[in-house]
Amino acid sequence: IQTEGPSSFVMINTKDDDATQETFAILPQIMEDYETRFWRVEQSELYKPAGVIAPKLPLYHPYHPFTNVTNGYDLPQVPLATKFDNYTDVAPHHLLDMVSAINPTEVQTFFVVQSLPYLPGIPVIARYQYGVFPDAKSEMKGFQSIWAQGIVFDHKSEAISKLPPTKIKIYESTKNELSPTILCGNTMKLDVVENLKGRGVWSLVVSSENGEVGDDGLFINKCRVFVGYTHFLADDDEYNNVLEFLRRKSPREFLGCIPSLIEMGFSQNILDIV
User: Fold this and answer.
1) Taking a C-beta distance cutoff of 8 angstroms, is the pair 155, 88 a contact?
2) pLDDT digit string (tens) for 81-121?
3) What whole-number distance in Å separates Cα of residue 242 and Cα of residue 35?
4) pTM for the full predicted model
5) d(CA 108, CA 85)
6) Are strands 225-232 and 108-114 parallel, antiparallel or unpaired?
7) Of residues 156, 158, 14, the one with CA closest to residue 95
8) Residue 72: count of CB within 10 angstroms of its CB
9) Residue 188: which residues within 8 A CB-CB, separation 6 or more?
10) CB contact set of 248 (below 8 Å; sequence gap of 6+)
11) 90, 155, 234, 271: which could join 200 in a potential S-S bond, CB 3.0 to 4.6 Å?
């Protein structure tokens, strides 16, 4: 396998430990030819009985993940989710400044590639429950709630979207045994489907028990802080490019490629790196 590509394909150093030698964990398939690789990331139990394979990380999809899909059977898919230890090398300066100002005791980093298999015009909102409720299950009993907010940076335009603090409630569903009832409203809208496909965004996601906000507009008391990059697959061709690229790379090699993938996207060009 070639580890040095063209000059535009920049490699970065990764931590030389046993973890980087591990293989990606290929989780159970939910449909033919669908592969999911979660590395150093656990699978969320939310919606699992309904066939959704999601990481315990912030995601973006419509309020109802099972409706308004393009083929009647599609679900949001996450072919890749991994920790992103070297995000400070490539993240926007404004994002890094905000993280420094928060000065969290721990930051959960991520690099996610996900699909948006929905009809044009459908709003995509922040669905942070997968990350802020890491222990929740679809068979849960009782009730949980937490506040969450997100600051999203478009990678290309550098536009900033400040999603308002929202209380997310999750409780036992009496109507649908496949998933709990989750209420967070539609206030955390990011954009519509067609404007996001093929794009990448950086996210700073913060959760809080009481939702009290300081002068900087961020929660004063913070439970969890996530910082990472999400790429929304443009189409089936890009999806297949991702899978083929992952098949050719070891985890260590892939981690070194992340900055270039952020810049290049997942077009056919990435398959030239072999």
Assistant:
1) no
2) 998 888 898 899 999 999 998 888 899 999 999 999 999 99
3) 10
4) 0.86
5) 9
6) parallel
7) 158
8) 5
9) 125, 126, 128, 148, 150, 163, 164, 166
10) 1, 274
11) 155
